[in-house]
């Protein structure tokens, strides 16, 4: 699906991307009613001679071979430009079985150029390039074929100006001396994944820590069964068995269909189709050794008296963010400040939060610790917040 004229092959586009050292991409997908999100379209923008070539790839086509693109995505010499690309990268890593390196995310970068950490693609095109685009097909069915002319036009627009936008943001960040900060932040996107971690799924179950030692192996067995069933049927896990019903089954350990029927949320349809299967999973779980709840090393809990210190820290961070022309959201969340203050009050090691690492520590994290230690102070002068040495 190219923009007219003879379309270069994907291998040729990959060669052009390597020669130029960059490629822009976006994806369209459908996640509703499925176990895993379905990748439906890949949009590429590749420098080609003196222009940008737009190519739409159909990963649902029987003849689709994404190997050339996978090679480019894993090549650290090629910059991969995206906008709000976490899910795009996660999808491509899984579907193409590749790593994605050297990512530059224009939404992330915009936060370092005083343009808002959550800026939309449309607003960045308007503010940075003076361009306006009309979006009209974002919630259409991308898994149906053929795609409409409106959908194809929408898909092309998503990447048409993405390389130009990235270049403008990089120019601004270079002038501000923050391009390295933005690239550091973008590196975290390279490990984005939509694979389900069954241990994390288990730990997030409601009231899981209240389960008895004998019930925990049953809950684990049910989690594993639910994942296998949902994957095989390509449906959401909650549609197979809800979290609440799963925990209750593990807690009650039913051995008969009648006992299973007494559990709220197990569902009549589930019992008709899967009653005996559920009971087999419960029996298998009962045969596993009891599992004691491991004692967690908990971070110091926030106290009511921490609130003024958290507010003081937030005032410092907001002042520094404003001075630097950064989006405040890039520096800290309230949970970060709570953890920093609680660890400081308890005399524990520094909280393991983003505010105290990397460029954030350089900008304001170390200063925040000095504020808590009383070595610097905040004051108001000339109707503005001032930071100075404590008297």
- Main sheet characteristics: 5 strands, mixed
- SS element count, helices: 17
Strand content: 5-15%
Helix-strand category = alpha/beta
Summarize the structure.
This protein has about 400 residues and is of the alpha/beta class. The chain has helices at about 10-20, 65-75, 85-95, 105-110, 120-130, 150-160, 160-175, 180-185, 200-205, 215-235, 235-240, 245-250, 255-260, 270-285, 305-325, 335-345, 360-370; strands at about 20-30, 40-50, 50-55, 80, 105, 375-380, 385-390.
3D architecture notes:
- There is one protein chain.
- The chain is of the alpha/beta class.
- It has 17 helices and seven strands.
- It has helices at residues 10-20, 67-73, 86-95, 106-111, 121-129, 149-160, 162-176, 179-187, 198-203, 215-233, 237-240, 243-252, 257-261, 268-286, 307-324, 334-346, 358-372; strands at 22-30, 38-48, 51-57, 79-82, 103-105, 376-381, 384-389.
- Strands 3-2-1-4-5 form a five-stranded mixed β-sheet, with helices on both faces.
- It is flat and about 70 Å long.
- The model has no long low-confidence stretch (mean pLDDT 92).
